[in-house]
TrEMBL record:
Pfam families: Na_sulph_symp (PF00939). GO terms for cellular component: membrane. The lineage of its organism: Bacteria, Pseudomonadati, Pseudomonadota, Alphaproteobacteria, Acetobacterales. GO terms for molecular function: transmembrane transporter activity. This is Anion permease. The chain crosses the membrane at residues 7-23, 29-46, 53-70, 90-113, 189-210, 222-244, 284-301, 334-351, 363-381, 387-408, 420-439, 459-480. The keyword Calcium does not apply. It is found in: Membrane. Keywords: Membrane, Transmembrane, Transmembrane helix. InterPro entries: CitT-rel, SLC13A/DASS. It comes from Commensalibacter melissae. Belongs to the SLC13A/DASS transporter (TC 2.A.47) family. DIT1 subfamily.
Amino acid sequence: MNKALRCLCPILATLIILIIPVPRGLEPHAWRFFAIFLGCIVGLILEPLPGGAIGLIGISVAALFGPYVLFSSEELAQPGFKPTVNAFEWAVSGFSNPTVWLIFGAFTFALAYDKTGLGKRIALLLVRSLGKNTLALGYAITFTDTILAPFTISSTARSAGIIYPVLSHLPPLYNSRPFDSSRNKIGTYLMWTGIVSTSITSSFFMTALAPNLLSISMVNKIIGINITWLEWFMVTLPACFVLITISPLLNYHLCKPEIKSSTAIPTWANKELQLLGSLTAKEMLLIFFVTCALLLWILGGKFITPPLVGIVVVSAMLISQLLTWNDIVENKAAWNIFTWLATLIAFASGLNKSGFINWFGQLISVYIIHFSPLAAMILLLCIYYSLHYFFASNTAHAAALLPIFLGAASHIPGINIHHYVLLILPLLGFMGIVTPYAAEPSAVYYGSGFIPNSVWWRLGFIFGLFFLVTWLFISIPWVLMIS
């Protein structure tokens, strides 16, 4: 699809909704607001512009037409009500959201991993230790991702920026090349292990995937429930531990690398580590900073909020010259994510305030209200997960569907909404495995040429189903037991 058509599609989606008659039971301004929101979601899926630009355009349009899309006739009739002032306050509300600042801090951590070389060193150390055996190498990749995940909120920065560059050097050591049968020697196995591991770790830790924190903020805005780092970790620990333990072995049997063992990979890793030299003062300082951040995220909730932890640690990095201000200013990925998260959070609050979520939730609940609470919850989780086949972004998925599925669950008698939230939010990371376009790292590994299209769709379905079934069978009883 060319860029002109991708630019036109969001506008057409908005106009189509606007010309459809307002559904019964919904306020006209809420329907118009939804039209603008849908246009933004289409834009996020097709990406004619960066996500931050699309979000900014969306809230600008909504705020500009504030009296028609943001406020009911009753609000506009109130004495002293200033729609233009209130529309602007709504438009910028997301930029003061604590979650946005936590994400920005975490992105800066990822930048420090890259600049100091610590991320690459960790990967090479594990490859050198476990690389003699191909199965053990798969575990080395998975363990590397797990170690880096709590501190790198961008799965792209972690997997595509740190792990993939190391992996890309390994297949040539065995004459395993992309786009021909030699990739089966070891290349397909390594690349598939990379995307499997980042899909698991993105769900394992709250701070391992940016849309995780977007989802938490949306939940807080819509239904008033706040999820802490430790609570998320305690919920995901059993299922993700099982997945981290089993997935490399399952991958080893499904991908079946022709090369089972060799000394070439550890030898190469050792040479690369020699080039890096001994652990630098900056790397040791970064280890100290990220350890402090993790401890404060887990244990410091009574004394300091998680977003403030991020800001304080970033400030310490600047004071110690671990990073410079220019490093932060030039971190385009962080500023882009900062902007589109802030705008999507504002949209989530607008959908809730307008009454659209409540209306749509009631509409869905009519069809599943006769199910038992547990069956209804499982059905909603499975539908939410399966719909990712239609999305090319975890962020777009969460922004488009999470408010609707929260609204649906809230109208089903007997569902414990807190349990439901704890079970639905971590699904985002697992979704990155299902298609070659499911998430940004998916596209990177697919583009390597080592994973044929047919192989990806087959393995994506198998692992996607494996992740979902494991999550449901382990996490549902676990959540019921610990809550």
